[in-house]
Amino acid sequence: MHILVVDDERSMRVVLEVLLLRSGYRVTCVEGVRAAREVLESTLVDLVITDMKLGATQSGMDVLRAARAQSDAPEVIVITAFGTAASAVEAMREGAYDYIGKPFDNEELLLLVQKALEKRTLRQENVSLREHLVPGVGVMAVGRGERMRAVWSMVDKVAPTRSTVLIHGESGTGKELIAKALHLKSPRAGQPFLPINCAALNEGVLESELFGHVKGAFTGATQDRPGLLVHAGEGTVFLDEIGEVPPATQVKLLRVLQERKVKPVGSSAEIPFHARILAATNRRLDAEVKAGRFREDLFYRLNVITLELPPLRERPEDIAPLAEHFLSRQRRELERPGLRFSPEALSVLSAYAFPGNVRQLENVVERAATLADGDVLTLASLPPSLRGEPVQAAAAATPEVALGAGFSLERHLDEAERHYLVAALAQAGGVKTRAADLLGLTFRSFRYRLAKHGLSDREDEA
């Protein structure tokens, strides 16, 4: 934990520094308001201990206000020999953790420091929990637009019910976060939330994961295993990318949803389940039904209630608050509390269409914060594509192609396809589902193309 000590008396700074260092804290000592501001803006500080009277003209109240103005504000303890009831009330009203008078007992001060830091730790843990778990506070709730207010209104109405909900939205709009919100706002919140990506598993594995299997059902099935629908108990099972479920599994899933019973792979016995089903897709399932790729009866079974998540380009008013939210997270993770956007950078972000939606915005902010040399994220901190610049100047020109004897368009296109597959895998860090999203492909199509070009591994071939 990092503690900033502000006192105009050198002897008091030395006493506090030695006392705190012996207790295992990291300590920075300064003598005035200006130096304190510089430390607060450049370094992550967990606690400030400041004298109330700093020379003839400065005040510890100025340090307190500077500390409380930080995005991740530290706790503040005010120490003074000029203590009055009025100054104590003023300090507490301005947000000080506590107030102690000189002379003070060392053990009393250390106990106060410990309690102040415990409060800060608890506050940070609560922020992290709310961002990841609690609906209405995390990233999906950041925004002021009417579209997202309507989504949250629907979540509030639907969450307490047992109804099946189909969540539709483009990749990166936060479908799983909405599913978690539905779960956490429901009476099932204390039970498991079990997601499964239907596009990432082949037909046999998907059925085993959903319905379970018995010992000996297939090679490697060394013991009975309950599927997610049973294992979830009274909780929630989230079927992500439901539009990618193979036709044969669609038939079985329809029967399971109708009967509320599962038949494990390799078994003739049926097991009832009580979990709620939520599903999500980035496809228009009604169009998939017309094209014969998705069963109409399963579509209507899933489509009891539909939640439409708008793409980020349709709610530009939410871009700036979302960007600030992601930057706040980077300030904590990078321990750089002074990070901020320049007005020009924030304006460019707000005007961009973000085809990758909220996920792309989060990645852009993380990249800018990580690579920034200073605290101000300027236009130069943003990727060239956001600034309207081509990634390569030659990309806009029409390439010259030799169409002489021996030219093969099919071979040329195969080479280009392989190049983009490799590039997507590299950009996605080897995560195949993410690489498929980058190329606008379904996972199944992506896996087929990998195999076609000899890029698949044993897991894909299986």
Automatic annotation (TrEMBL):
As stated in the Swiss-Prot or TrEMBL entry, residues carrying the post-translational modification 4-aspartylphosphate are 51
The record ties this protein, via InterPro entries, to:
AAA+_ATPase, AAA_lid_NorR, CheY-like_superfamily, Homeodomain-like_sf, HTH_Fis, P-loop_NTPase, Sig_transdc_resp-reg_receiver, Sigma_54_int
Q: Which GO terms describe its biological process?
A: phosphorelay signal transduction system; regulation of DNA-templated transcription
Q: Does the keyword Transcription apply?
A: yes
Q: Which residues form the Response regulatory domain?
A: 2-117
Residues in Sigma-54 factor interaction domain copies: 141-370
Pfam families cross-referenced by the UniProt entry: AAA_lid_14, HTH_8, Response_reg, Sigma54_activat
What keywords were assigned to this record? ATP-binding, Nucleotide-binding, Phosphoprotein, Transcription, Transcription regulation
Molecular function via GO: ATP binding; sequence-specific DNA binding
Q: Does the keyword Heme apply?
A: no
CDD domains for this protein: AAA
The name under which this protein is listed is Type IV fimbriae expression regulatory protein PilR
**What organism is this sequence from?**
Cystobacter fuscus (strain ATCC 25194 / DSM 2262 / NBRC 100088 / M29)
The beginning of the lineage is: Bacteria, Pseudomonadati, Myxococcota, Myxococcia, Myxococcales
